[in-house]
Amino acid sequence: MALLISWAVLTAGCANLAGDQGPAAVPEVRPGLLMGYLSQDALPNSLTLVPSPPASGSAALALDEEVARNNIALRGTPRWELAISDADLHFPHAAGTFSCALDAPITEESAPYLYLLLRRTLTDAGLSTYTAKNNYSRPRPFMVNNEPTCTPEDQPSLEQDGSYPSGHTAIGWAWALILSEIAPDRADAILARGLAYGESRNVCNVHWHSDVVQGRFMGAGTVARLHADPLFRADLEAAKAEFAAIRAKGLKPERDCAAEAAALGT
Q1: Which of 168, 193, 209, 216 is the catalytic position?
Q2: Which of 161, 211, 229, 235 is catalytic?
Q3: 119, 186, 193, 201: which is the annotated catalytic residue?
Q4: Which end of the chain is more exposed for a tag (fewer CB within 10 A), N or C?
Q5: What secondary structure letter does DSSP report for 55?
Q6: Residues 79, 140, 193, 207: which is the catalytic one?
Q7: Measured between alpha carbons, how far is 98 from 253 in angstroms, rounded to an integer?
Q8: 22 in the Ramachandran plot: left (φ > 0), alpha (ψ -120 to 50) or beta?
Q9: Mode of pairing for the β-strands spanning 33-34 and 28-30
């Protein structure tokens, strides 16, 4: 998250109206990161919505530590490799995260509105976690247990970015909820993948269990707020139409879905 999102650059959302030429251009808040739909004051406020991180000596902290210890055993396994993939929020890579769950590809060429929807809601959901992140500045698991992470190149940045709640998880759960609306008959598979996406942060040793739990809460809160935004709703309807066309063509995922299923079964 720290590599992709800067709280200070968030400004009011801009119009993105449907038209014959496809989605209108949306400004970037930094290279590769599109402006979200929601202005800063419209985002759910994680500092007022989530509880304080687990206290020293609490059962909740003991659970966090147990989950972290258990995930160390997954290092080097296919599940660890999937967690590395899930950590990458850059596009076009991130657009394929749910392609196996959807049993269809998501590309900018085949689904420009859906692709745009994922990029813009990444910003909204990620930023929703930052009032709490910045307030608590919770150290991440690798800073406490001194075990490796699945993305060592990110560690210097992650050390400066609070662990609680998880921004990646908020993004993944927001995407799962949105995609479940777009493909309701695939909702179980989509939601299961959304749960696993958050758990990848535990596997990577970069988030505690409670970070992930509250990240899902913030993702859900962001999606609820997005439904009051007319531009989001317009893009959502356009994305539904695009996805129906993709399915009618019988297009299949470009990822190795058998390998993903095996990794998730670890």
Answers
A1: 168
A2: 211
A3: 201
A4: C
A5: P
A6: 207
A7: 9
A8: left
A9: antiparallel
pLDDT (tens digit, 9 = 90+) per residue, 161-190? 999 999 999 999 999 999 999 999 999 999
Q: Examine the residue annotation and report whether 201 is marked as an active-site residue of this protein.
A: yes
Rounded CA separation 80/201 (Å): 10
* Cα 180 from chain centroid (whole Å): 14
Annotation marks residue 168 as catalytic: yes
Report the alpha-carbon distance of residue 98 to residue 105 in Å, rounded.
8
Statement: the pTM of the whole predicted model exceeds 0.90 = yes
Write b or e for each residue in 143-169: b if 16 or more Cβ atoms lie within 10 A of its Cβ, otherwise e. eeeeeebbbeebeeebeebbbbbbbbb
SS3 category, 33: strand
Q: Running DSSP on this structure, what letter comes out for residue 18?
A: -
**Nearest residue to 193 via CA among 259, 84, 75, 98:** 98
Contact 230, 38 (CB under 8 A): no
Whether residue 211 lies in the annotated active site:
yes
Per-residue CA distances from 108 to 29, 98, 131, 132, 178 (Å): 19, 15, 32, 33, 17
* 256 flagged as catalytic: no
Q: How far apart are CA 261 and CA 233, in angstroms?
A: 32
